[in-house]
Each structure stands twice: as structure tokens, then as C-alpha cells.
Specification:
With about 325 residues, the protein is an all-alpha fold. The chain contains ten helices and no strands.
Length: about 325
């Protein structure tokens, strides 16, 4: 029986002090009941059989967790709001970092794609670390203040079934990642196109050729509509008929402009004196055209996808 006492003591050490005695007595009674049942079946119980019994019950730490599960850092009731807040803040930080780094990149200090990607990742991650820590600590404090018997999520006290959104397919839900990714991309395009114009004193020049830049200037209203469309998605978070029709129009415009740029004109200004001698200009231009062609194919796919979705809704 000393082995049983050692086992119970090991379990108690993993428990809060105010629960050690009660749980210890309950666990001891449970073990003794099992030993008595074994004795009733086979007459006597050896130390080896008691050892096997305790092994079947599990490690003392695992048993303690069964009796007294640890309090989560963030309560289950607050977890949906925590994740929504985290995604929203990280999305906003991604957009802000994109604008800030693009502005510095276009100023001409480091006109290097690798520098741009490195600066964007560094700026976003530095802000994201702080935001993640601050939001997590804030919700952890709220979880401690929340009533232990409360399972209601914040903001769910007053609701009505009549006001719930219409039932739809899984694809109708719009994720925050997609919304903020589109927002950051559209704002990046706007800055690429217009920065040399609204910041003429910065010395920045357009990275596009004259013909391509002229087309993109006329295309800017479509990008503006796409930005408003993303904000609309952020408000509703569900695809509906009108949103799908607008998205089809935007994707079609992107497909046509991308295809026109690939077919009719060089897209980017390539400064041959800044290139390494081993880099072939024609291959570089071909790579740029292929990249824009991929964008056109993605836009075409979205047009076909949204037309099919529109038919399903109809």
C-alpha cells in the first residue's frame, strides 16, 4: 500500500493546495475499490499487479489534470472575440506596413525588390509581435475577471433569431486574410502608379514604361473600386449577388488590362546599367510578362468562379 500512498502524494503535488485533500481522498477510495475488486476475483493482489494498475491509471500529472484541468490563458467564451480582434489588428498593420515601406522604397533610397520584401516583413513582424503580446495580455486579464461559471461570449446577451444572416454555403464566408491581403495589394498598386506624381519633389520615377504607366493611370478608378469593395466585404463578410457581380467586373477589368500590357508594350523600365552582366535583359522582360500573364489567368479564374457562384445563388 505504500506504493498507492506514494502515487496519491505524487498526484497531490500537481494539484492546487485547496484541492489536494479532497481529491486525494477521492483518488484513494477509487484505487482501493479497484484493488478490492481484484482481490474478490483472485484472492490476493501482488505488488506487481498494483504497479500495473497504477500504470493503467496514468502518470500522476495526467491524473491531476483530469481532476483539475488548468485554467486556459484565454477563456473559451472570449476566444472568438480574441481571434477576430487579432486578425483585424494584424490585417490593419499589414496595410500600414505596406504603405510605409512602399513609400520609402519609391523614394529611391533602395530601389531593390529584395530590400522591399525584407523591409515589409521586418516592419510588419516588429509591429505584429507587440500587437500579439498586447492583445493576448489584455484578453488574459479579461479572462481572469470573467465569472468562472459564465459561458456566454461578450456581446451575445441580446440577440434574436430573426436577425441572423441567411443560411448559405461555406464559400460565402469571406475570410479576413483574403480581405486584408487584397487591400494591401491594391494600396501597393496605387502607390506604385501615383507616387511619382503626388510626390514630385522626392525624385522618385515611375518603374513602369511611359505607355504602361499611362494605361495604369486610367485604370486607377478600377483599383479604387476594388478598395471600396474590400471595405464592403469587411463590413458584411458574406458574398451576396451584388458583391459577386461587382467582383466579376473588377476581375474582368484586371484580366483585360493585364492581357493588354503583356501583348502591346514593355511593362517595366529596366536600367541595363544597373544589372549584373550575367543577367539577360530579354529573359528579364520575358519573366515580367509571364508574371503579369499569371495575374491575368488568376483574374480569369476568379471571373469563372464568381459566375458559377452567382448561378448557385440565383
Amino acid at each position: 500500500m505504500k506504493m498507492v500512498e506514494r502515487y496519491i502524494a505524487a498526484v497531490q503535488r500537481e494539484l492546487p493546495k485547496n484541492k489536494q485533500d479532497d481529491i486525494g481522498r477521492e483518488l484513494k477510495a477509487n484505487i482501493l475499490d479497484k484493488i478490492e475488486a481484484m482481490e474478490a476475483q483472485q484472492g490476493s493482489v501482488t505488488e506487481a499487479e498494483i504497479t500495473e494498475l497504477l500504470k493503467e491509471m496514468g502518470h500522476p500529472r495526467s491524473v491531476a489534470l483530469q481532476f483539475c484541468p488548468p485554467t486556459p490563458l484565454i477563456s473559451a467564451a472570449l476566444m472568438p472575440l480574441y481571434l477576430h480582434t487579432l486578425y483585424m489588428v494584424l490585417g490593419v498593420l499589414l496595410v500600414i506596413s505596406t504603405i510605409a515601406i512602399t513609400s520609402r522604397w519609391l523614394d529611391g533610397a533602395e530601389m531593390n525588390l529584395f530590400w522591399f520584401l525584407k523591409g515589409l516583413a521586418s516592419s510588419f513582424l516588429n509591429d505584429a509581435y507587440f500587437a500579439f503580446a498586447a492583445i493576448t495580455i489584455g484578453f488574459a486579464v479579461l479572462s481572469r475577471k470573467q465569472k468562472t461559471d459564465s459561458t456566454e461570449a461578450p456581446g451575445t446577451g441580446k440577440w434574436s433569431p430573426e436577425k441572423l444572416p441567411a443560411a448559405g454555403k461555406d464559400w460565402q464566408h469571406i475570410s479576413l486574410q483574403n480581405i486584408f491581403g487584397d487591400l494591401a495589394t491594391m494600396l501597393f498598386l496605387v502607390m506604385l502608379i501615383w507616387y511619382p506624381i503626388w510626390q514630385p519633389d522626392s525624385g522618385a520615377t515611375s518603374i513602369f514604361t511611359l505607355e504602361a504607366h499611362s494605361v495604369l493611370l486610367w485604370f486607377t478608378p478600377v483599383i479604387g473600386i476594388a478598395i471600396v469593395h474590400s471595405l464592403w466585404q469587411l463590413r458584411t463578410r458574406l458574398w451576396n449577388r451584388n458583391m459577386l457581380m461587382l467582383n466579376i467586373g473588377i476581375s474582368t477589368a484586371f484580366f483585360l488590362v493585364s492581357l493588354w500590357l503583356v501583348v502591346n508594350t514593355p511593362i517595366l523600365r529596366i536600367h541595363t546599367e544597373a544589372l549584373h552582366a550575367s543577367i539577360n535583359v530579354s529573359y528579364l522582360e520575358l519573366s515580367i510578362q509571364i508574371f503579369v500573364l499569371v495575374i491575368a489567368f488568376i483574374a480569369a479564374y476568379e471571373v469563372i468562379r464568381d459566375i458559377r457562384r452567382l448561378i448557385r445563388i440565383s
